[in-house]
Amino acid sequence: MRAELSFFVGALGLVALTMVVYRAIPEGRSGAQDKTGRGGSFVLGFWVRNWFYWFIRPVIRVSLALRLSPLFYNILAVVFGLGSLVFFARGQLPTAGWMILLSGFADVMDGEVARGRGLANKSGAFLDSTLDRFSEFAAFIGMTLFFGSGIRAVAVLLAFGGSMMVSYTRARGESLGVLCKKGLMQRAERMLLLGVGGILDPTVSAALGRDTGFVLLIVVVVIAVGTVATSIYRTLWISRELQKR
């Protein structure tokens, strides 16, 4: 078994164990409503998101005890994003996948630290959202360099454009007074798919008798379709809401 796959299986085992523990406590048995106060949807359901924020509480507490700033995690997320660019470009897909997952984790942590320290404000929210786009942009640049030209590069371009449009339609809607978090392929879902796809690609692609990058390309196509569909749906939904007003 490849080293990256062994580590991934170990991580899945830890996830499964902590989910069992969470399900056994009153907090985890009390339904699948959103307990985070963040609203929106998540493809794996609210229970999984509730579990995740419960799972990272110790890291949040340590960060608060060390008085780490939200900016620390903002910068860390960008560093991991740039790391994904480098490793994708070099064809080291599993490492690039872990870089994406770590970038997403750092992105979550900056918001939690900001709220925990009472530092949440509009300036921080703007910086967070903007740096998220830079991190995601870096990952897609790396994938473009890995795939090269041709139809595969077009798929990456569509996935990136769709991802930006999902974010843009929400931001533009909010600027006009309409909040829309509907649809799939929001940032958390995109990063999870790209991260896991990169990690598993060499093993699964080889098992299917395909060249390295086959599984990642499928993930990119799924993201492209999902993000374009979501951005169109949000465009229509926000337009109708504005017309009602």
Task: Please give a handful of descriptors for the protein shown.
0% strand; 245 residues; Four Helix Bundle (Hemerythrin (Met), subunit A)
Could you write a compact summary of the structure shown?
With 245 residues, the chain is an all-alpha fold. The protein contains ten helices and no strands.
Note down, in words, how this protein is organized:
With 245 residues, the chain is mostly helical. It has one domain (56-244): CDP-alcohol phosphotransferase transmembrane (TM) domain (Four Helix Bundle (Hemerythrin (Met), subunit A), Up-down Bundle). The protein is 78% helix and 0% strand. It has 10 helices and no strands. The longest helix is centred in the C-terminal third of the chain and has 31 residues, at 214-244.
The beta-strand count equals 0
Q: What is the H/E order?
A: HHHHHHHHHH
* CATH class call: Mainly Alpha
Return the CATH architecture.
Up-down Bundle
User: Would you tell me the overall average pLDDT?
Assistant: 86
CATH-wise, what's the superfamily? CDP-alcohol phosphotransferase transmembrane (TM) domain
Task: Give the helix level as a range of percent.
Answer: over 70%
Structural class: mainly alpha
The biggest beta sheet is recorded as:
none
Uncertain segments of ≥5 residues (pLDDT<50)?
A: none
Gyration radius, in Å: 19 Å
List the total number of helices. Answer: 10
* Tertiary shape: globular
- Strand fraction equals under 5%
Distance, first to last CA = 58 Å
CATH topology, by name, is Four Helix Bundle (Hemerythrin (Met), subunit A)
Count of separate structural domains: 1
